Design the sequence.
């Protein structure tokens, strides 16, 4: 079986919504055990092949939470050191995904903010990404001029700092030092913001970093796998094109909604 496209088949590739939780809880634990034996840090579970895989971000987060929880339980049962997780969502779209994950694990929900580095003439083309604390990742389209690089980084970093400031009121004062850092988003398109976020979290010296997302392009898996201790992806559709096409509802997450997501953790902490 190709480890980069591990497929769990439920009832001839169809899973009623009411059965998903049980299916994930049982099958993902078994597959996680197999992966831990071969020390392969990637876990993909293929749900279905239709375009609208998830109803909304909360639905995606709920499905993702069950798979993460199975991995978490298995790791806790096979190590002498208890895992102490923190969920880091990439705002704003990652926060509705992160809420069910943090709730399932009973752990804090925080944020790590990363913004695309773009040219003013083409804001949709990502040249790289930078976090609020200055961790930078460049694509192959990296500008040659150091002056241009610095200008673009500064502009993107200011956006990241501005967003972080708006969310600080709801963000818990926690550190990932010696803990399991679980990074979540509503999906990965280019991978640059996620990789920049991982670099930022790694500065805090966590015990392990997991990247966990509902969808990602299959061609990005090798790069993502190299920068984390475990990669959990629910589906890797082809053609990918954009994250939004795999959601029935994919409205913009406003700052007020993002703050409300962070404040929900008072219900389980």
Sequence:
């Amino acid at each position: 079986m190709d480890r980069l496209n591990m497929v769990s088949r439920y009832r001839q590739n169809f899973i009623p919504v009411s059965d998903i939780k049980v299916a994930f809880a049982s099958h993902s634990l078994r597959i996680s055990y197999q992966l831990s034996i071969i020390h392969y840090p990637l876990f993909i579970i293929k749900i279905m092949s239709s375009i609208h895989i998830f109803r909304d971000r909360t639905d995606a987060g709920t499905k993702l939470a069950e798979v993460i929880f199975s991995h978490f339980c298995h790791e806790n049962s096979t190590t002498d050191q208890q895992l102490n997780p923190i969920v880091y969502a990439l705002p704003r779209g990652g926060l509705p995904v992160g809420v069910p994950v943090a709730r399932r694990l009973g752990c804090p929900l925080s944020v790590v903010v990363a913004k695309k580095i773009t040219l003013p003439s083409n804001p949709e083309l990502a040249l790289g990404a930078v976090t609020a604390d200055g961790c930078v990742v460049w694509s192959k389209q990296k500008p040659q001029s150091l002056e241009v690089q610095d200008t673009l980084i500064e502009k993107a970093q200011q956006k990241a700092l501005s967003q972080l400031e708006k969310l600080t009121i709801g963000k818990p004062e926690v550190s990932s030092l010696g803990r399991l850092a679980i990074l979540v988003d509503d999906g990965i398109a280019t991978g640059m913001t996620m990789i920049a976020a991982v670099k930022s979290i790694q500065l805090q010296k966590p015990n392990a970093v997991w990247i966990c997302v509902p969808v990602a392009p299959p061609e990005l898996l090798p790069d993502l796998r190299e920068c984390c201790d475990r990669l959990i992806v629910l589906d890797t559709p082809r053609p990918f094109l954009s994250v939004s096409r795999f959601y029935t509802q994919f409205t913009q997450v406003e700052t007020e909604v993002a703050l409300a997501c962070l404040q929900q953790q008072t219900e389980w902490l």
Observations:
- The domain at 3-267 is CATH 3.40.50.2020 (Rossmann fold).
